[in-house]
Write a structure and sequence with these properties.
single chain; 160 residues; alpha+beta; four-stranded antiparallel beta sheet; 4 strands; 21% strand
């Protein structure tokens, strides 16, 4: 048995070289031990999108994300449609006091507010609203399609 300590943040060359193999071990572990289904979202199905109406990915996914938010709020929190419309969604999860910043020594995505979108078969099934700051990542909110609650996306997102 050989054990290596590999720097994950910032990712070292060893980490990058062994990432896929490590991920496959993790996925198999999750399926065998925790009985995760094989179609649980993968690393390639998660997009980190800056919360900005200037960002093309954010703009193109806004309606789908807002609709998912409303579906979640009504199913899980029993909100009425008027309590989870587009204006409420924007106020609650898109308007942020943080300003985007991309310092040369910071993460590739920069600092600021993001929507971490989980995609499956071409549609968003969950969104983690997060703030990436110089010394931490803050989870603001997570909403998901109740039809996919069997995937435990809140747990997956927290661990991720």
């Amino acid at each position: 048995l050989k054990v290596r300590v590999v720097r994950s943040s910032p990712p070292s060359s060893q980490f990058k070289a062994t990432f896929q193999e490590s991920y496959q071990v993790y996925k198999r572990y999750q399926m065998v031990i925790h009985k995760d289904p094989p179609d649980k979202p993968t690393i390639n199905q998660v997009r980190l999108v800056p919360v900005s109406f200037e960002d093309p990915q954010f703009k193109s996914s806004f309606n789908q994300s807002a609709s998912l938010f409303a579906k979640y709020q009504m199913a899980i929190h029993k909100d009425t449609p008027s309590e989870c419309g587009e204006n409420e969604f924007t106020r609650f999860l898109c308007d942020s006091p943080l300003e985007a910043e991309n310092p040369p020594n910071g993460p590739e995505c920069g600092y600021g507010s993001f929507h971490q979108q989980y995609w499956l078969d071409g549609k968003i099934i969950a969104v983690g609203v997060i703030d990436i700051l110089p010394y931490c990542v803050s989870s603001v909110y997570l909403y998901y399609d109740p039809d996919y609650s069997f995937l435990s996306l809140g747990v997956y997102s927290a661990l991720r």
